[in-house]
Write a structure and sequence with these properties.
Elements: E1 2-5, E2 25-29, E3 31-32, E4 38-41, E5 45-50, E6 58-65, E7 68-76, H1 81-86, E8 93-101, E9 108-113, E10 120-124, E11 127-131, E12 136-140, E13 143-146, E14 157-168, E15 171-180, E16 186-188, E17 195-197, E18 200-207, E19 220-229, E20 232-239, E21 247-249, H2 253-256, E22 267-268, E23 276-280, E24 283-288, E25 291-296, E26 299-304, E27 309-310, E28 318-324, E29 327-332, E30 336-340, E31 348-351, E32 365-366, E33 371-375, E34 378-382, E35 387-389, H3 392-395, H4 398-401, E36 410-413, E37 417-422, E38 431-436, E39 445-449, E40 454-458, E41 463-468, E42 471-475, E43 483-487, E44 499-509, E45 515-521, E46 524-532, E47 538-541, E48 549-550, E49 553-559, E50 566-568, E51 571-577
Length: about 575
Amino acid sequence: MIETFHFTQGMNRRKGRLYLDEGEMYTCDNFSMEHEGVLEARTAKTQSNAIDTDSASIINGIHRYIDSVLASSRANCYGTDAQFTADGVTQPTFNYIYQRDKDASSWSNIGILAGNSRPRFADYEKFIFAVDGESKRAYIDAKEYEWGVANPEVAPIVSVSAVAGNPDGTYTCVITFVVEFPNGKQYETAASPSASVSPSADEISWDNIPTCPYSGDELVIRRNLYRAVSGTYYLVATISDNTTTTYTDNVSDTTLQTKTAYSTTNYSTPPTNPVDVLTYLNRVWAVKDNTLYPSEAYAPFAFKTTTSMVVCKDDEDIVGIIDWADQLFIATKERWYRLQGTDADSWAVRRTFADHGAVNRHTIQKTKQGIICLDYDGVYLFNGYTCQNLTELKLGRDFITGLDDLSVCYSEYDGEIYYLYYASSGSTVDSCLKIDFTHGHPNLQMYLCDYVDAHELHLESSTRYQVLDGYEYTVGGTETIDTTVITRDVAFGNIGKLKNLRYLYYDIDTGGVDVTVTYYIDGTASSYTETLNTSSRTRKRSAILPQEEGYRFSLGITCADAQDVVIYSPWVLEATPVGD
């Protein structure tokens, strides 16, 4: 009597071991399944550049755009926990932002975010925008800026000069701030409050022209002066510094009307403390509460007060946003919405047919098959219309419902594998579920991994950025990797008949390390184990196995240092019936 074991279908925890399909495993930890029918230890990681090695800090994000790499690190405010406890408050935390150039090895602390949650990043026009629910920042390489330039709050003083000149009539006058960033991008604010003047063929004196309080490295700040003719503001002059507070205006109406007209009406800053950010339709979109805020096209600092959209009811806040299949989708914890239209004149928010939403914005990823996200009872695939629970059939609902804290979960997707990082108990992330789409949906493979990190795949260069315990890691090198496989139970065609095991036929290359095979009989590990150690691929029959009776049998294959171990399918177990 023989039974075969293939290692091809990943892990299934929803069924009992006896009911697993051929190729499914009850446990599959720290393996990759890149090659059909072959189990190899996950890729080794090698510690490289230090980012933030303080024991109280946690690297919670890493992001690359063009030639700049950012990492965020949640850290404690200065002072001991006991000092804050004595004052009756919890020790505050925040996010440090570190940066390095893509080819550099050292990281620099370039800024800080007031919140302590995992930041969200979006790239546009040589900016990286970062939000964490309590801050909003823009980065250009190693330079940090507040995302948003406040409009002038004070009107200039304009008066009739004692010198004869061209202006003749009653005018309103305003100023704007113009900020030029070191990447060459420029932003002009909306206008200040207006001031009036009525010259009679006299020059106009501008005084107390407001200066711009916005600051940052390598900025060029100017002020534009506008005067209205026939209801339209035209550019009188540009003051090329941020210090001069006076100007003499002698521009005639005819000349003024040939100048640039004021065009930044209703411009404002992004919402205060947004929780998510995304680039879509050449705009940067921000989320706060139940409202969606788009920037103006090609102007990531310009948000109009007239174009924000309420997506859902007041007690149904937006969890996250993502673009997929040339559309923008908006997730709440209850459902998914879709943005219809291409501009402010045609935009409308429509509810989809999906009866599940996303519980955590950091688990939302897009794939060729659809959008993947975590909900209360599983990892779901949203196809733009409806949702399907991906993990229910292989892991059961209690795999997710049994977790203590879904808010700490986060994910990455590298084009083939969806990585869900989670806390197996409590709130400390210590585990990773991999959902492998290599063979397409619905032929998914799932397996577990102990390497928990901040992880990003930079698509343009196919470079993986991974961080663990304050250090950056590279792919490859030497690492001690602990692996475990527990196979399905086999009954040799008759669950009601007692059997004795006789031989194991195995196919393995252990790479010179010990691999332990444990025999499970009716769900209990036998006291007999077998150690395999080979220097090359070996197909072999074991010695005759001890006579232990049972109805169903499975294998456990473990290795404490499995970096070079390769397990080939199939393995074969031979048994003889008792009493025949």
